[in-house]
Amino acid sequence: MIDLHCHILPGIDDGARDVSDAVAMAAQAEADGITAICATPHIRHDHDVRIGEIYDRVAALNDELARSGIGVRILPGGEVAETALQGLSLDELASVGLGGSRWLLLEPAPGPLSDSLVDALRHLHKRGFRALIAHPERHPGPEAERVLAALVADGALVQGTAAYVEGGGDSPLYPLASRGLVHVLGSDSHSSLAGRPVRLSAGLAALSAIPALRAHSRWISEEAPAAIVSGGEVVVPFAST
Questions:
Q1: 63 near 236, Cβ under 8 Å?
Q2: Across the beta sheet with 73-75, what order do the strands follow?
Q3: Could you list the pLDDT tens digit for every one of the 241 residues in the chain?
Q4: Strand residue runs (E) in 83-214
Q5: Backbone angles phi and psi of 165, in degrees to 5
Q6: CA 108 to chain centre
Q7: What letters, b where the CB count within 10 A reaches 16 and e where it falls short, cover 111-122?
Q8: Rounded alpha-carbon distances, angstroms, from residue 150 to 84, 182, 240
């Protein structure tokens, strides 16, 4: 499994506090069967993340994990805020693609989902990028399902947070997933010390219990994430409704 959304790089945003915290997060991931993690520091105005440092920080953490005997591989990436897109150059966008691909993890603007996100997606497409929409469960509103359906129709994929789907039918993600509007999961973990763990398996098991997704658990957990980080074509095997 590949975790496409994790704040594992130490001391760069509100994620891992230090190297030992990052190593402990990777150990959590390995115990859950995760083999690779996209490091996705916040790319937005309230975090001073220097995009040019991300690749070196990823390499340094991979070296530390190797020394610690942990077999999880860290991949480059970023969580790009919708509100930051206009200020980023093509080179900067390319530097925060998931796994070095043209797929960007796109964080919606605060508040309910709106058509501004559809406009942002089209802006990315014109610049040669694809979008994976981050954590829609954090942006509820009367237009959420309509906006997500429009994004998916325009070629976006949607990433739900694994911890928020573990509740099954009680989860705010469950109705979206039931409509085919959730394609992959990420942990969105920030630390081993508190909050969401680096864990995907329980959320994936809950998604697999949804009748419309039962036959596609391997695509959700393995095939789609692998295609995203490799920059391959991603063909969704189920329809959105």
A1: no
A2: 2-6, 36-39, 73-75
A3: 999 999 999 999 999 999 999 999 999 999 999 999 999 999 999 888 999 999 999 999 999 999 999 999 999 999 999 999 999 999 999 999 999 999 999 999 999 999 999 999 999 999 999 999 999 999 989 999 999 999 999 999 999 999 998 866 677 788 899 999 999 999 999 999 999 999 999 999 998 889 989 999 999 999 999 999 999 889 999 988 7
A4: 103-107, 130-134, 157-161, 184-186
A5: -110, -5
A6: 12
A7: eebbeebbebbe
A8: 21, 13, 10
CA dihedral 198, 204, 205, 211 (to 10 degrees): 160
What domains sit in the chain, N to C, each tagged with a CATH number?
2-230 (3.20.20.140)
Instruction: Give the pair of three-digit tokens for residue 226.
Output: 């692998």
60, with CB counted inside 10 A (0-12, 13-18, 19+), is middle
